[in-house]
User: Which sequence fits this backbone?
């Protein structure tokens, strides 16, 4: 267990992939309880226009060169250049099944 994690993390914390319903444009990946998802998506766009799906183990890989030594802020690396999803997450995004509309949890 990671000792740096807070003791009060909810048991139902999960990663969620959110996209716009009508055009399938990605909104983001959120880690929260399902009940908190609406509020987080609301910080970015209209939640009622979005759908979501729980993600399996996987990840989002930042592009650019991986630097295994001290970072030099003068080099200004492009951390978001050429990003991609791991295979499992890419499969989830492209699968049309299992998406649920983001709705108000109350």
Assistant:
């Amino acid at each position: 267990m990671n000792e740096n994690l807070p003791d009060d993390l909810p048991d139902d914390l999960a990663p969620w992939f959110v996209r716009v319903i009508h055009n399938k444009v990605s909104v983001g990946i959120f880690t929260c309880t399902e009940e908190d998802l609406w509020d987080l998506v609301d910080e970015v766009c209209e939640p009622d226009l979005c759908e979501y799906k729980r993600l399996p183990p996987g990840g989002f890989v930042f592009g650019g060169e991986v630097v295994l030594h001290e970072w030099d802020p003068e080099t200004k690396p492009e951390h978001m250049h050429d990003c991609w999803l791991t295979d499992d997450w890419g499969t989830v995004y492209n699968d049309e099944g299992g998406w649920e509309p983001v709705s108000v949890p109350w």
